[in-house]
Amino acid sequence: MRALRILLIFVVILGGLFVIADRVAVNFAEDEAADRLRTTENLSATPDVSIKGFPFLTQVAGGSLDDIEVGIKDYEAAAGDGGQKIRIDDLQADMKGVEFSGDYSSATASTATGTATIAYDELLKTAKSEPTQVAPGVTANVIGLSDGGNGKIKVTVEATVLGTKLPEPVSVLSSVKVDDGTVRVHADGLPKFGGVDIAENRVRAITDFQQKIDGLPGGIKLDTVQAAPDGVEITVKGSDVRLAG
Q1: pTM of the model
Q2: How far is CA 89 from CA 149, 189, 243, in A?
Q3: 226 in Cβ contact with 149 (< 8 Å)
């Protein structure tokens, strides 16, 4: 019995040491992965990287990690041609089936899903914020975007008729969708500017706009969008997503 107790104590101690070693190793790996991701994506700040699953060392021995969660607070994504950028806030991505090279210089996830937010003030940069002529003597421009409820964006437009600014801006509820990596905002109806009849295509030149978003981390792509209180919430997904290398 005494020998059995000693054996059990020895096993418990070894198990405890293994757990400690495993957690130390995973913390080190998370820090290394975060640094590599920051360099690969040219980020201004180090992202959060969390390696899930236990034990970590067994996964490493097999050359593949089950699940890695990545959090990037602010990400500057390419916004189409011309070198423009658009800020993506709170990007949270879940990477599944991450395989890495023998020297850990590269890592690729078989699939990835995630969420993020594009603030309304960022998306507003895409709309026509400078007064544009929509009819003889009538100019208009978008001055604000906000949550319209029920998944709609409220687009607020300011207009000037014959040199006189209308006392109150007009607004219209708009739908938002993703089409081939482009966020498209389309007015459900048309606002009236001081009772002046204006051709629909001229009005939509102001109320409707789009924003191409390229170059998300690892090659992930936009999947869906929906208006929310703080901005447009987006989901992303991808396959064979590169984390490093």
Answers
A1: 0.83
A2: 21, 30, 19
A3: no
* Cβ-contact 51, 68 below 8 angstroms: yes
Residues 6+ apart with CB under 8 A from 89: 73, 74, 116, 117, 118, 119, 231
pLDDT at 21: 67
Q: What is the 3-state secondary structure (H, E, C) of 13-38?
A: HHHHHHHHHHHHHHHHHHHHHHHHHH
- With beta carbons less than 8 A apart as the criterion, state whether 61 and 25 touch: no
DSSP H helical ranges for 45-128: 56-62, 120-124
Per DSSP (E only), the strands in 27-169 are 48-52, 64-78, 85-100, 107-119, 132-135, 138-149, 152-161, 164-165
Smallest CA-to-CA distance from 113 within 57, 144, 68, 177 is with 68
Residue 223 sits at the vertex; the CA angle it makes with 222 and 227, to the nearest 5 degrees, is 90
Residue 95: both structure tokens together: 């990477």
| pLDDT tens digit sequence for 17-40 | 445 666 777 787 888 888 888 888
φ/ψ of 90, rounded to 5, equals 50, 55
Are residues 132 and 139 in contact, defined by beta-carbon separation less than 8 angstroms?
yes
Report the alpha-carbon distance of residue 234 to residue 228 in Å, rounded. 10
Residue type, 69: E
Alpha helices, H only, 66-151: 120-124
